[in-house]
Amino acid sequence: MINKIYGYFHFHNNHLKSAEHISNIRNKKLCNIIRHAYYTSGFYRDLMERAGLTPDDIRTPADLALMPVVTKDDIQKNFNGILSRKYDLSDCLVRTTSGSSGKMLRVVWDSFNLQSRFQLYYRAYTMIGYSPLKKLLYFLPEVEDPGFTFGLFRQKGLTLDQPFDQVRDFILNYRPHILSIYPSYALDLAEYFRPGEMKRAGIEAICLNSEMILEKDRRLIAQKYMCPVYEEYSCVETGVIASMCREHGMHIYSDNVVVEILDSKDKLCGPGERGEVTLTALNSFAMPLIRYKIGDISSLSEKKCSCGGQMPLLGKIEGRKDDYFLLPGDVHVPAWSIYEAVERPLHQHNIEHLLLNDFYLVQRSLRHADFYYVRGPHFTAVCIDEIVSRAAGLFGKGFVVKAHEVNDIDRVRKVKRKYIHSEII
Description:
Elements: H1 2-11, H2 19-40, H3 42-50, H4 72-77, H5 79-82, E1 93-96, E2 106-109, H6 111-126, E3 135-139, E4 154-158, H7 164-174, E5 178-181, H8 183-190, H9 197-201, E6 205-208, H10 215-225, E7 229-235, E8 239-244, E9 250-252, E10 257-262, E11 275-281, E12 292-298, E13 300-301, E14 313-314, E15 325-327, E16 331-333, H11 335-347, E17 356-365, E18 368-375, H12 381-395, E19 400-405, E20 420-422
Helix pairs in contact: 1-6, 2-3, 8-10, 11-12
């Protein structure tokens, strides 16, 4: 109970404080987690000693550049060595990441870390209109019970395996003000609402998470649910990384993570330059994560948000590193341009015409990709020819895209709900 009360006040309204106050909190937490990792985690002590470092050498985010990065492979191979000796695993929660990057990881949450996650999710929802006495409905593969909400934060969690018609009925009876949901799930669920029911549900705002969010999907969800749509960016390993305010600024949670954007040589990218998201978790003590590369692509922004919040802004989250295609000569084709090539033929005829029910484009080699598709009610073979032609033009001469009609994309897709994937990055 003490941890839960402390967690609430520890994070309450930090996002509204001055830039100097936020920086001081971040730096103090960074020093604390570095010292904790050095003295209780054999993996990090060895890592720092090999680099000739002591905890006193790391005081600000800029100092982190002195430390080597840590990958998912490192965590898989050194799981026990990374864990803090101060924590008994039986007193912690052990979770597993989804494996959307191709590597499933065990992640350990201590009690403070667990409560931190809840409080930071509350913050994310508060930033888009959630307040005491309003109702929240969220969807997760496994629902966690916060156990302590001051009697104010009314919420319900549903797993993703329930029949859509039952979920629709639940929403109409519960009438949540805020909906936290996967984009693909939101689109599928919307088809089960009858005319007039969505307005009766009274949803005021939607928070999308967990999947790459396409602009056309965001617009369609806003249209179908008749409310504003926002994004929250998080991972199982660290919890919330950033979330949108009502002005659609993606605010980095500097009291939870230090975010670095690194290039292919693990050097810091400048503002606006795209690179790989690398995280240092500031509230994870049972399993410290320092300079951990998570595989997503984004950038840092120097802009200030019109909402007045002083937490720094994250640029567009452009998908995982393996959403990029690699071409000869070390040329990288970003995910957004691939989506543009593939999806424009799908939507040039009007959004009401569903040409395909699903698709999956996977790169097999430097010069070959397979395009799998499931026919939609308005399917035409010309559409497939256009997609193959546009993709081949994007990837250049000599690159072959082969089209395959299938009945079920999940039978060929190896990673969770992704439309584009490279097997060679």
